[in-house]
Amino acid sequence: MSAALLAAGCGSSPVTNQIANASTNPPSKTANPTPSHTVMKTDEEWKKQLTPEQYRVLREKGTERAFTGAYWNTKDPGVYRCAGCGEILFASDTKFDSGCGWPSFYAPTNSTVVAEQTDHSAFMERTEVLCSKCGGHLGHVFDDGPQPTGLRYCINSASLKFEKK
């Protein structure tokens, strides 16, 4: 069972708590329930732009194996952009070590950069996190993170590009 949870992306706790006031203004469970993507490309255009792993994660909703992504253990200051469209999604000052093997953040840079939707894959219900700009699959959000939000955005490294400060 634990292997299934790891393969599914960090756990199975759906987001149920209300977000505490945080300076980063993170989204609630209902933030951007139906995103209107401003970056629209064909599958062929995405395949030309992205690596095979990025395409699998961002466009096919794949998950990289735990502890294998480029950023799970990155501690440098900077920002994390969507690998698909370049939108700034997360900042290093909200990144924390959750021990799950994927980059984890307690909040996105603001409430408009990510969208959330219910995900019923892997025999569980989770909250999927998408880039609001291009609709790329980023990972999942859980309600077992640190304060000030209590959230853990468990994000695939393949969906991100790190810009060091």
Features:
alpha+beta; 13% helix; disordered N terminus; six-stranded antiparallel β-sheet; 165 residues; single chain
Write the layout of secondary structure elements.
Elements: H1 2-8, H2 43-49, H3 52-58, E1 78-82, E2 88-91, E3 95-96, E4 104-105, E5 114-119, E6 126-131, E7 137-142, E8 152-155, E9 160-164
Antiparallel strand pairs: 1-2, 1-9, 3-4, 4-8, 5-6, 6-7, 7-8
Q: Please, could you describe this protein's structure?
A:
The protein is of the alpha+beta class. It has three helices and nine strands; from the N terminus they run H-H-H-E-E-E-E-E-E-E-E-E. The chain has a six-stranded antiparallel β-sheet, with no helix packed on it. It has a three-stranded antiparallel β-sheet with strand order 2-1-9, with no helix packed on it. Strand 3 and strand 4 form a beta hairpin. The relative contact order is 0.28.
Assess the beta-strand content as a share of residues.
15-25%
Q: Helical stretch count? A: 3
The profile of the biggest β sheet is: 6 strands, antiparallel
SS content category: alpha+beta
Mean pLDDT: 84
Distance between the termini: 40 Å
How large is the radius of gyration?
14 Å
Q: What would you call the shape?
A: globular
Percent in helix: 10-25%
Stretches with pLDDT under 50, minimum 5 residues:
1-8, 12-35
Reading side by side through the largest sheet, how are the strands ordered? Answer: 3-4-8-7-6-5
